[in-house]
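2024-03-11 09:14:02 INFO worker-7 job=invfold-0412 stage=load source=structure_tokens
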């Protein structure tokens, strides 16, 4: 596309008699478009999507939820749960080891059972499972090591995905910054 724009621009320069300096400025401005918001469109993966757990809740707003994007083995997203009459939200970074096994490596958010580090303060390093079993997501492991998935995959609305991609930290996360996950 840029090549055709350049050909059209040079043809226009030849026809209009623009000077060399003006042509160089015009060509430079067409070759480097105006800065735009980063457009990260990571490929999907087994963990990518919206996952919710509503068992025991009295309203949909109280459902536990993960919104996850995945690029290669890197998983980045947000989490939410409702407990003791309060909402807890945060961010998560994980590394997929297979299509059903991943390790959460970093987390931040409202201090509660999931983290003790606010996102404004940085990331808390963790080493906890994130697994898919029987088509459901699990963030816990049973005492015997077996998987108990309770987050159901639900359709991630385009506006949820777009909002997640627009988060300032998301592009760095999917690129491997911060953290030690590749």
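2024-03-11 09:14:09 INFO worker-7 stage=emit residues=182
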């Amino acid at each position: 596309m840029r090549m055709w724009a350049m050909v059209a621009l040079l043809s226009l320069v030849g026809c209009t008699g623009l000077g060399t300096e003006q042509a160089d400025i015009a060509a430079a401005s067409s070759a480097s478009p105006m800065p735009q918001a980063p457009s990260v469109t990571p490929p999907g993966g087994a963990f990518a999507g919206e996952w919710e757990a509503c068992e025991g809740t009295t309203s949909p707003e109280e459902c536990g939820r993960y919104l996850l994007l995945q690029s290669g083995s890197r998983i980045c997203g947000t989490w939410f749960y409702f407990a003791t009459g309060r909402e807890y939200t945060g961010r998560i970074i994980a590394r997929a080891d297979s299509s059903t096994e991943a390790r959460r490596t970093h987390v931040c958010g409202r201090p509660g059972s999931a983290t003790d580090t606010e996102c404004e303060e940085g990331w808390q390093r963790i080493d906890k499972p994130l697994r898919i079993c029987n088509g459901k997501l699990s963030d816990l492991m049973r005492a015997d090591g077996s998987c108990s998935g309770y987050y159901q995959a639900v359709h991630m609305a385009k506006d949820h995905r777009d909002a997640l991609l627009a988060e300032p930290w998301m592009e760095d996360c999917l690129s491997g910054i911060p953290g030690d996950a590749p």
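2024-03-11 09:14:09 INFO worker-7 stage=report msg="Helices lie at 2-16, 20-31, 158-166, 170-175."
2024-03-11 09:14:10 INFO worker-7 job finished
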